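Re: the multi-chain job from yesterday

Posting the exact lines I submitted so nobody has to dig through the queue logs.
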Amino acid sequence: MRTPVKKYLPIAAGILLAGLPLAAFSLWLDGNIEQKVRFETQLNADRTMTMINGRLTRVAAALNDLAARGITTCSPEHIEALRKTAFVTSAIKELSIIGTDGKQSCNDTGLQLAPPQMVGSAYQTKLPNIMLDVLHLPDVNQNMVRLRRRLTEGGSVAGLVAADMFVPIAANVAAGNSNVRVTGPDGAAIANVNGKVIAEARPDDLFSTMAESEGFGLRVSVSNTRSQMASKNSEVRTVGFVSSTIFGIFILGFMAFLMRKSQRGDPSTEFAVALSRGEFVPFYQPIIDIVTGKLIGAEVLVRWRKPDGKIVMPGSFIHVMEQNGLIRDLTHHLMRQSCIDIGPSYACRPHLRVSFNLTAEQFEDEATVGEIRSIFAKSPLKFSQIVLELTERQEPKSFSKTRQVIASLQVLGCKVGLDDVGTGHSGLSSILKLGVDIIKIDKMFVDSMDDDRNSATIIGTLVDLARKLGMDIVAEGVERFEQVTELRRRGIRMAQGFVFAPALPAQAFLQLVDAITPQQEAAAVQPSQLQAGILRAMSA
Ligand code: C2E
Ligand code: CA
Ligand code: CA
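And the result, structure tokens for all chains:
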């Protein structure tokens, strides 16, 4: 049976497969963006540090050059020399001569600014004689870096470097606006760009990279937030999301296609649909009293009448319907349809019987009794007309349960027949144990009774047994007139087979009933070919 789990497996697999690329892409993208932005941020911190080092090294070189040239006084020529050096050294804001008292004696700009305040202590750079100061300039309210070249005669020549020289491009990177901070050897802030990034960030959203200058004791830190970098990369994300969604939809569609295909090809689904559409119909194979020539009744054999009129035999679907649990509904449907088909005709012929085939499983389930009771309780078919066939080919799991169900069915008034006797595994002992009313001798024994001594013996034993236990015997698959004669000679009264008729559609069977089991109202019906066949067999 196709369980719900198996049925919905393709859907689950489809959702999984469709969702997988989305989830995988999203994960990959997140990781990729973070990695990319980290790399870029670190690169910018390193680049900024390299640039600061380069500028300060050039300023130090300019100061060394002035010292070497003896430009150490405030004479007009020396101030002119300072101006030229400041002019060609782009990072320098101002060059000045510092006295032995540490105060500025003169500068190249001629600006008279309030004296700068030292922030932290002077730092000896890795360059000989070059000191680094972080100053606060009260007039412009800015911190700046000053390099001082100590002079042998005392005092120094100094260059002021603007903080904005330290952060030209680092603040704007692909990841978004980064916070860039440059701090001095004592941790004093020299530059702080995009401070909002840090001020507004959640701590878990923030990440920073850092670079240090060994030569000048400075530190650059570049910070950013994950949310900002994600939004900056939203275009990449959108393109990726759209393409992976399209891919997901494609996979989902493909799985739906596969599922429809597999369901269309799934016989269980096909049979269930056919059953709900009433395409399974009962055919009736006549059972004849071969002593009197009278009609005893019929065995219901299912046929699948497809919408195009094609008739399908049970061999190609009964087994599957037994496996997937549809057999129960099929049996009930055939029983109800039989009530409609033959009920009126049988109602005025109470001696006629109708047999239904049940599976061994149905015979082990007490519910079967209730189902049969409710189907036939108000039908024109009486329980005494119903025969239920249990095949000997399927071995019952529990003989005691089967025995119980058989007994309950007999209490209802039904008869129980053991089908295909001699072909199963249980042998004669099961016939005795189960307490059936009828035994049906399989076609195999009927075919071989003339040539095979074993078959003849088995038939003889069954006839004796049936007589002793008060059971009826039906011979199945009788195809020739000689077989009818021989069966009668061996004491068998009832037979069914192609010699009389195959399983007939309801209307044909009803015509036969009317023809050979006359009622006043059926007198006008012409004897059919079937009746002629039966009469011929009887006279043989
Ligand atoms: P079965 O119950 O033994 O039914 C007798 C089978 O032998 C039927 O085949 C019938 O058409 C065939 N038959 C009858 N007379 C002759 C004959 O003279 N010569 C030959 N060669 N065959 C003959 P069918 O209708 O194909 O059914 C095959 C089997 O399918 C049945 O065997 C029965 O086991 C199962 N079946 C049919 N209808 C139902 C049903 O409603 N429920 C269940 N559970 N099984 C069913
Ligand atoms: Ca049967
Ligand atoms: Ca049979």
